[in-house]
Every structure is written in structure tokens, then in C-alpha cells.
Amino acid sequence: MPLESFDPLLRANDFVQDLKWDPALRDRFAADEDAVLAGYDLTDAERTAIRARDFRALHDLGLHPYLLSQLARLVFGTGENAGSSAPATALLRSLLGDDYDRYLGSRG
């Protein structure tokens, strides 16, 4: 995914960075996602995409591609099998949409 959509001013970028580096924030997010999101000056579209785990929408809004993968890892946990973990699967399903099954089929 190219950086063409990346918007450095998108506040969700800051949110994901904070979530990545602050264990207490991750705990609060796990306990009360809405309260944590309310503490950030996010747009309704950003909040909706984060709640829905809609990584494609976040990409289209301008979230950095690296932060997309970090958010998937943070909200779904870290799997042991690279590329087949719940975070990787959720990210790919969201990004590829209807092309997900075709993508899996092309991998053999």
C-alpha cells in the first residue's frame, strides 16, 4: 500500500502511536474503548473506522500503513504465525474486501 493516502495531520496517527507506546492507555482502551476515543479529537469517520476495525477506511482517511498493522496487532493481539494471525487476517480482510478469498487462493 503506497503512502499516497498518508495524511500526517490525521489525528488517528497520533492515537495509534499513543496506543502503541502507552500500556496504561491500551488497558483503558480494552476496558472502555469509547471513553478513550472520546479523549482524542478524532473525526466521526475516524472513530467509526476504529470501532469497526475497518482498516481500509482508516487507510483511505490517511492513516500511515505501518500504523494500520500496529493497530491490528494492538486490538487483536499478536499471533505466533506471521501472516496467519488474527491481526494479519483482520487487516487483510479489511483491506482486500471482496478480493480476500481470491488473494488467499493465489497464494496456493
TrEMBL record:
The species this protein belongs to is Amycolatopsis rhabdoformis
The segment(s) forming the Extradiol ring-cleavage dioxygenase LigAB LigA subunit domain are 13-75
The cross-references to Pfam families, in alphabetical order and at most eight, read:
LigA (PF07746)
Tell me the protein's name.
Extradiol ring-cleavage dioxygenase LigAB LigA subunit domain-containing protein
- Cross-referenced Gene3D superfamilies: Dioxygenase LigAB, LigA subunit
Q: Which InterPro entries match?
A: LigA_sf, Xdiol_dOase_LigA
Signal peptide coordinates = none
